[in-house]
Every structure is written in structure tokens, then in C-alpha cells.
Amino acid sequence: MKVFSKETYINRRKELKRKMGSGLLLFLGNEESSMNFKDNWYPFRQDSTFLYFFGLDMPGLAAVIDVDQDLDMVFGDDLTTVEIIWQGSHTALSDLAETVGVNKTKSKAELPTFLDSISGQRIHFLPPYRPENFQKLEAYLGKSPQEINSAVSVQFIKAVVSLRSIKSEEEILEITNAVNMSVKMHKRLMREAKPGMKEYELLGLVNYEAISAGGTVSFPPIITINGQILHNHNYSNTLTNGKMLLGDFGAESAMHYAGDITRTIPVSAKFSDSQRDIYQIVFSAYQTAVALIKPGVRFKEVHLAACRKLAERLKDLGIMKGNLDDAVQQGAHALFFQCGLGHMMGLDVHDMEDLGEQYVGYTDELLKSSQFGLKSLRLGKELEKGFVVTIEPGLYFIPQLIDLWEGEKRNSDYIDYKALSNFRDFGGIRVEDGFEITSTGAKVLGDPLEIEIGEVEALR
Amino acid sequence: MKVFSKETYINRRKELKRKMGSGLLLFLGNEESSMNFKDNWYPFRQDSTFLYFFGLDMPGLAAVIDVDQDLDMVFGDDLTTVEIIWQGSHTALSDLAETVGVNKTKSKAELPTFLDSISGQRIHFLPPYRPENFQKLEAYLGKSPQEINSAVSVQFIKAVVSLRSIKSEEEILEITNAVNMSVKMHKRLMREAKPGMKEYELLGLVNYEAISAGGTVSFPPIITINGQILHNHNYSNTLTNGKMLLGDFGAESAMHYAGDITRTIPVSAKFSDSQRDIYQIVFSAYQTAVALIKPGVRFKEVHLAACRKLAERLKDLGIMKGNLDDAVQQGAHALFFQCGLGHMMGLDVHDMEDLGEQYVGYTDELLKSSQFGLKSLRLGKELEKGFVVTIEPGLYFIPQLIDLWEGEKRNSDYIDYKALSNFRDFGGIRVEDGFEITSTGAKVLGDPLEIEIGEVEALR
């Protein structure tokens, strides 16, 4: 288990206490997750907020911060003699807690009693996303599922989001580490993808690169010749000449920070003319966005500027038409770019998604739009120094969506459905990198990875 | 999604109905499992019993067999228009159900109402091992967690076990496929493991071999220089000359059948003298067991014969002493062989472990022993033609256990603790293969994989 310095965790908790003012903060660590029988487990993944404040990377833990008493406690159990025989000896929990600056540990069994004994203090907890932690909250707090959902502490969520959003230097280094691992995964795929291969062969390769570097994948990789399918975890297709291969994946470092990169490459040695055209449009939207991101700029405006760039270039190609200010305002471009330009990245690839997009990506004054396209934008609010965000524009030709809109003549002032018919089976292209927001602008994270057409073709 | 023929599933369900006689059988498929936020999922794994009887390999399904009405139904939902835009078009559930011989499908939302409407028929269900399926049973059946636990249907468990225990020819082929993938994983590791490497580099390699062949790992691999730690999912050690490397892992095929093989190799080019001695003892126990397995033989007796062989050879080495019949009866050998000789293998690596070891590995007449060592033997009952089992003897020198027993002078009539002190830090050795029980004996599954000392050294 690799942790930052003791002071890092002490300071994070101190800052959290300052923001909360009072109350009892309950942190539930994650448990092992069963695959096909109880003891056949998926690789363990600790909860990210637990990692952020307590650093301890093992199942079966909980923690409490009593803000009023300025007291931090970890609840968990040491191995029994029998367990040591099967699992080997482990460092005692109290010694592990010491490494993250926590001096008080108790047995897990004491947690319900401890929580029961609390009176006159609000018990703050975060929204559970695993069923077993939902069950624990019901049992510990004596609440129904409905009551758990409505008793989640918005104040606690906002305090955690405000801290985790601003990455420290040591976090930036760790994210860079994850991004560099991700770059290696992509270079390997870009070099080795060949016609005749199955997508799952490349899935094996990128898993190899992540795991053999001491990490894992930060989310289920997307490796597909059907880039237009946005949520795609099928790997059964064969790579064929003329197709493109979209790879959206990244590594999770040993300390559980995420990388997330997308490249789209031709299966053949070169892009075709139309692939080149669409790729250049996507890349110009990427460049537009990268040039704009800096503290004080709303990410929603960056998203819309990228959309505007996509629309302009699609108009040059004859697929869009009319007044482009109106087109973007009406969301006409979302026929081709249905999702958001990017998201925060940190201990989670979609950082803090469990805490709720409204709290992570928006503010009390800036609510998420319900317009198709914009409603999938995870991050809308003003960027701040220390944010880490992805920029990932794309163009996706989804036959079902094209048919749906054309049938309704939706946005037909802005879309030339006849010209579009040539691209109906084009597929999809996305490019994505991670960026650190600096005091004056932004810096791409990690080692360089080929992105321009010439660079990509040189690797093939 | 690859399935067997329609008739295979129809016949399995027909046979199950015959064994049950009457009642309503409820099958819960698995859901997606969240890692660090709700929509960041581990790779989906369908429930094995669901796969066995219904073959459908996707989340969000349930099924019902009404034995009295001879009616098979699958509950699930087709993608909505919005979902098709994000996930691409999928085959309709009714068409998928057709491929496994089920003509009746209903929406998932209809399941609670359907179950509510059942009267006069017992609703049989299997023990849930995932929290969300436990919650579903509580909700569907209006029962408390305690009531769910006590209402699990033993008749249903026994009927499923009796069917799944006997592997058909097509299942043997599919298991062989998984074993062959596992053999490739092992050969790769045996060839590439070198001093200075980290265990996780080899973890990456074996994952690559499994995934790039269209499968995955059948359980979290054990790849360790500390073979004496039996439950070990740490991969952070460096391979050093003089150590051994124990690799216990296997592939899961695209149809979710498991392979499971163990080899122990020297990190150096050759085994040391003492490693050779202990390896030979373990291998002789393996040979003893392999020679004995056939229909009608209790696996418990095979286990004890292997233990006896280990004890004999440990006596030759001076570590054990005294009357070996008594020693084995007292469980003295379990200081070195703390676990069981093997287990069933099929759709699960420990086949049907979710259904309960007593029902899978024992009978009403043969209960599991509570003696240390024997209590970890998952399979004790008579072997039958069509069983697939592993044979995996080992010798593990666990310092904490040696200290515990020596402190208590436990079994000191049979163990020479002084001679043993030379082996205190020896580590652990295990070898394992999978076998099909044939009408006259047994057949090792899959392509040959080096196991004898000379063969192993030739690969290094």
C-alpha cells in the first residue's frame, strides 16, 4: 500500500473539518465484490473519498471524523490467528492508521454502537453506490432506503467536492504517472493493431500494459471499430481495412489515480479521404477547446465553442447549414456530438461521479441543461487552478439517431440530411487528452502521444 | 454471446423439472457491479446457474420455471430508443430467448407482480451471493434477511447440483478450451519469469494471454514467491534467485467455463536440492491421487491417500516420524498440507460453491469433517463419470502455524520440530491439473503442460 505523507492526510481532514464546522462525518470503505460465488472476487477497489482522506487501501474499513471533538477514527479488524495462517501476517491496523496520521482505531463491530451513542450531532454521510454500503447505512442508522436517499448530506458532498476538485502537486504527479501508463497502452495499440485482429486481442494488450506497470485499467476500455456506439463494451469484432479503430482507455496507478485518453486510428495504414476530413474537424475542435481552458472560464462555454467549431467545419463539408449561432443554440450539432466535451479526472476517471454531477460539475447558480447534448456535459462550471479535466470532442454518425431526427425533420434548418446520407455508416471519431488547469492556462498531462494525422499514420 | 444448441437448454430445464416434480423455480441473473462509482463497472459476470439453464449472458435478467405448468419464462427488457442511441441496436430479448428454447419473455417490471400472484405453489430459490440479489429476494418475496436465509430451497440446490455435476461432452470440450487457454498462460509465465521481475509483470502477462484469447481469468491469479501464503493476492514482490514462484491461475472461456492449473517453478534456472526434494514429494502425491481417481471412489479417500504419500516422503526426509496411519488420522500432515486435494470445476472454478459445499461435495451420509485440513476439503463424496475435478496437493511451510503447533507440542509424536526448523522459511509448493472422470478412470484435461522437474527446468 503506497500512501502520501502523514501530513497530507492530516491536512486534508483538517481542511474538511474547517469546511464542515460541526457534525460527525461517516466514511464507508468498500468491501470485496463477488463475481460468480461469494469468495471469487473482482480485484478490490477502495472508495475514492476514503482513499483521499484516509489512504488505507483494503476492504472492511470505515472511518469517522468527529468535527466537534477534532477526532479522527478508523474502524476495522486485524487478522485473526487463523487468518494469518491463510493470508500471512499483515501490518496491524493501528500501525497502518498511524501512517495516515490517525491515532485511534476501533474494531469494526464497535461502529454500530458508536453511531448509536451519538446524540445531538448530525451524522453526515455521502451517497452510497454499492448495495452493501447502502445496506450498512440502513442498518447503522436505522433508516429505510428512502430515508437513506433523502438524508445524504449535501453539505458533506460540497465540502468533499471543493477539496478533491483542486489537485495538489503530489496528486498532479500521480495523475501524470497514470497518464504516462495510459500513453504506453495507447502507443502499444497504435503500433500493433492490424487488419484481421480481434478487438479483444488489443484489449489483452492494453490490460497487459496497465497491469504489468503495477496498475490496472481505470475503467472498462472501449476498443471498437464502431466508434459511433458511445457505450460499447463489446470486443468481438474483427479489424478490417477501411474501418477506423476507436480506443478510449487509460490506466489506474497503484495509488488509484486515473488516466483517460482516446485516439482513433485507421485500421489500414492511412486514413481515407473522408476519415481525414472528419478527423481534422474533431481535431480542430480539440485545439479550439485546449486554447480556451484556463481559470475563470466556464467549461460549458468551452464546450459550446468546440461545438461551434464542429458546426463550422461540418458546414464546410455540406452536412450542416444555416445560421450556426442558432444551430448551436438549438443543439443541432448534437446529432453528431451527443455527449460532453470533458470531465474532471482524479481518483476517479469521472472524478467524484458518485457524489452527483450537479455538485461536481455545476453550482447553485449554474444548473445542468436538459437539452440533448448539453445534458450529457458532466462539467459546466468555471475552471479553477488545480482542476484536472479531459478534452474529448468527437463526431459520431449514429444511424438510429439520424433516422429519428430525419423522420421528425428535427433541426432541418441546420442539417442537410441528404448530404449526411453519405456519412450514415461512417462510424465515429474521438480524440481525448487530460489537462491540468494552471494559473494562466492549461498543460497537457503526461508524455506526448501522437494525435495529428501525420503522426498517427507514421506509427501505423 | 455464444450459446450451446437450443436443445441443450431445453433438455437441462426438462431434467430439472423432472427432478423437482412441482413448484415455481426462480433464477436471478446478475447485475453490473460498481467499482468506484455507479456506472464504472467491473467486467460483467453472469450467474453460472442462470447460464447453465438459460444461457443468456447479460445483466438485468431473471427467469422462472413453472414446473407444474411446464412453462419457462425470461424476464428482462429490450433497449429503449435512447439506449439504442448510446449502446447500438441489440437483438431483441425474445429472439435471444428463442436461441435457448424459451418462448415466453416478459418485462422485468412484471416479475414482482407475477411472483405476488403465485398462490399454492412453493417459490424455490437458490442462496444469493451478491447483495443486490439478496435485496431483490427480500423485495420480491416480502421477506426479512433472516427469512430469506432460511427459505432457500435445499431441494432446488440438490437438483441443480445433480445436473451441473455431470458434465456433458460439449461441456468437457468447453472446459478443455479453458484449460488450453490456461496452459498457454502458464507456458508464457514459465518461459518469461526472470530474476528482477515484479510479480505484477507476470500478472499482466497471464491476463494478456487470457483476454487476448477472448476470455478472462477464472479467478484472481495467485502469482507469488510466497507460495506458503495460501490466500495471496499481493503481487508487489520482486523475483529473486533462490526463490520459487508459485503460479495458480486459469482462464475463463468466452462461454464462462473455467480452467485452473498450478505450477511452482524455481526463479533460478534450476531447483535447489531442498526445492527438488519437496517438489518430488508433492509430485508423488499428485501421481498417487491421479492413479486413484475413478467412478465409485470417494474423493476423501483419494485426499487421504495423497496425505499418506506426503507423510511417507516427509518421514524419509526426517520431518515426520512415528506411525503414519495414526499421523494421517490425527491430521498431523495438515501442518504442511492445510487445504484440500481438489474441487469440482465447471462454470465456476470452484464449481457451484455458491450452492454450499455440503451439497456440492458431500452427501446426507457423508458430512464434511471438522478436523483441521479435512475441513478445507471441498469435495469428499464418491466420484462419478462426468465429474471434472482438480488434483492439487502441496506442501506449505507456514512459520506462524509451525510456531503455533510447536508451542502446543501438537502432534509431536509425528512431527520432528527440530528437523522441521531447517524448512521454516522454505515457502510452499503446489502442482495442480484438471481431470475428467471417465467410465474407467480419469483423463487429464487439455494440452500437456510441463510438470516434472526436468521438463520444468528445460523451459527456464
Automatic annotation (TrEMBL), chains A, B:
It catalyses: Release of any N-terminal amino acid, including proline, that is linked to proline, even from a dipeptide or tripeptide. GO terms for molecular function: manganese ion binding; metalloaminopeptidase activity. Its EC number is 3.4.11.9. InterPro entries: Aminopep_P_N, Creatin/AminoP/Spt16_N, Creatinase/aminopeptidase-like, Pept_M24, X-Pro_dipept-like. GO terms for biological process: proteolysis. Keywords: Aminopeptidase, Hydrolase, Manganese, Metal-binding, Protease. It is an enzyme of class 3 (hydrolase). Its cofactor is Mn(2+). Residues 4-135 form the Aminopeptidase P N-terminal domain. It comes from the Bacteria. SMART domains: AMP_N (SM01011). One of its GO terms (cellular component) is cytosol. SUPFAM superfamilies: Creatinase/aminopeptidase (SSF55920), Creatinase/prolidase N-terminal domain (SSF53092). Pfam families: AMP_N, Peptidase_M24. Belongs to the peptidase M24B family. PANTHER family: XAA-PRO AMINOPEPTIDASE 3. This is Xaa-Pro aminopeptidase. It comes from Algoriphagus chordae. The lineage of its organism: Bacteria, Pseudomonadati, Bacteroidota, Cytophagia, Cytophagales.
